[in-house]
Design brief:
Distance between the termini: 28 Å
Strand order of the largest sheet: 1-2-9-4-7-10
Radius of gyration: 21 Å
CATH superfamily of the largest domain: Jelly Rolls
Structural class: alpha+beta
Helix content: 40-55%
Number of helices: 13
Number of strands: 10
Number of domains: 2
Strand content: 15-25%
Largest sheet: 6 strands, mixed
Low-confidence stretches: 308-326
Order of helices and strands: EHEEEEEEEEHHEHHHHHHHHHH
């Protein structure tokens, strides 16, 4: 590892005490950006970290189950959390992970949660308890993702000085806290009196939404999606609509159209092939719906969209709404 950037990962079969860096030595704050090949990394404790994968999929197993990160999704793991990871045969990805030393994270939390008067009197962070982040995959969005992708670009090109990387890590962690507060506000808005119940509702709805996004091209029914959340269909429908301000079917249609836009921008597939690839059964119905929602036909959308090469296989512009990094 050179300073704060590691461009090579330990082999899965390396003779290491995988828990030692976390429980004994304390992980430093650093970034990994390296090619990763099929293999299985054993269960071990880790620091607060953000897991990304570009060009393929990497799987993580935690006490929340098995989850996948890819071009469209990232995963936050909490300090001291045990996890294992693997890459399937045939997959070759770029693994991009951010690891935060506990004291580094507490300094950012302390500075982000107190006013200037307090910080002038108490500049050093006390032994704070870090927030318990939701350890479920999140889709790239407008708060954290622009900063992750900016850092990925700098680290990937090996052009960023160590000082610049360190500054970016402070800002990424600040944005992670901001995104976490947004999730907490969503949890708070869920229809339940007890906080623990609201948190559990959020986790189950998130599982169902992830299932829906992973299987968007399939013929999904309400009972099938609800079963991913271990909820009855009507209870799930009511909670989903209260949380996302749309029904599961409306969310599915919107996601399919978003995916169609991605394919129109990034591939030369025919409109009819894209229609069937994203789960629509009729080309004419797809084209009519696309025009109503987007204000133009799929062909016009493709012509009017300037081709852009992105850092990842799938364009993220639709998901982060053109958010800029300052």
């Amino acid at each position: 590892m050179n300073n704060m950037i590691a461009d090579e990962l330990p082999r899965p079969d390396a003779d290491l005490d995988w828990d030692a860096p976390c429980s004994v030595l304390g992980w430093p704050t650093f970034v990994t950006c390296a090619p990763s090949f099929p293999g299985h990394w054993p269960a071990h404790l880790g620091p607060l970290s953000i897991k990304c994968a570009f060009g393929g999929r990497e799987w993580y197993r935690t006490d929340q189950g098995v989850q996948c990160v890819d071009d469209a999704r990232y995963l936050v793991l909490n300090e001291g959390q045990e996890y294992e990871s693997w890459i399937d045969e045939g997959e070759e990805i770029t693994s991009f992970c951010l690891f935060f030393n506990g004291n580094f994270a507490r300094d950012v939390l302390h500075a982000s949660c107190n006013d200037d008067d307090h910080l002038l009197d108490e500049p050093a962070a006390p032994p704070l308890q870090l927030p318990l982040f939701f350890d479920q995959v999140q889709r790239h969005e407008s708060i954290l993702s622009p900063w992750l992708l900016d850092l990925y670009g700098q680290v990937g090109m090996r052009s960023a000085p160590v000082g610049a990387v360190e500054e970016r890590l402070h800002l990424v962690l600040e944005k992670l806290l901001q995104a976490h507060r947004g999730l907490l506000r969503r949890v708070q808005s869920l229809p339940s009196i007890r906080r623990n119940t609201r948190v559990e509702i959020y986790r189950r709805l998130h599982l169902a939404r992830t299932y829906l996004e992973d299987h968007y091209a399939a013929d999904l029914t309400l009972p099938r999606i609800a079963s991913a959340a271990c909820l009855s269909p009507h209870h799930f429908l009511r909670l989903f609509k209260a949380s996302y301000d749309c029904t599961p079917h409306q969310y599915l249609i919107r996601f399919r159209l978003q995916r169609a836009c991605d394919l129109l921008r990034s591939t030369e597939e025919t409109v009819s092939n894209i229609c069937f690839d994203v789960g629509f059964a009729s080309v004419s119905s797809f084209c009519n719906l696309f025009k109503r929602r987007m204000g133009m036909s799929p062909e016009q959308y493709r012509l009017n969209t300037v081709p852009r090469r992105t850092l990842v296989g799938m364009s993220l512009s639709a998901r982060i709404h053109g958010a800029a990094v300052g």
